[in-house]
């Protein structure tokens, strides 16, 4: 690691530990956030220990319905240009990797009222549509996790997948909409292919 990279890493660690601990509901030790990025409603966000959030992220709490609306576990890395929007709850477990360009939302924009004076993007469903991502899961580049979805532990979400339904533990899913393509077999201690099983 050259001196400039090392200096930048130490700077963001020091800045994050000083600045975000004052603003957020919780901000764990050794966690750091790299600017530029957008964060809305800091006080409703909880970040665990040893978390890295890279530049370009948008982490937004809108119309908060709970004291903690976005909850990020320990040892999580959130890469460039990830967009997380939550109103009720987005909970990310421990040891999760979220690669670049992903989106995770618990907000639904109703479109049934075609004569509304408000554009669809400004409308927000008043229901609760929480999102959970289990421990040790990996979210591939450009994937989208839809409202009201639970991703189990040790899951792999393929690049550019659109996850619209729950994903059981120890599964690999891919596609739009995402389908289960592999499951981990504990007896053989190997991943087994699955044919045409939707989540």
UniProtKB/TrEMBL annotation:
It holds the Pfam family Hexapep. Keywords: Acyltransferase, Transferase. SUPFAM superfamilies: Trimeric LpxA-like enzymes. GO terms for molecular function: acyltransferase activity. Its EC number is 2.3.1.-. Belongs to the transferase hexapeptide repeat family. This is Acyltransferase. It comes from Shewanella vesiculosa. The lineage of its organism: Bacteria, Pseudomonadati, Pseudomonadota, Gammaproteobacteria, Alteromonadales.
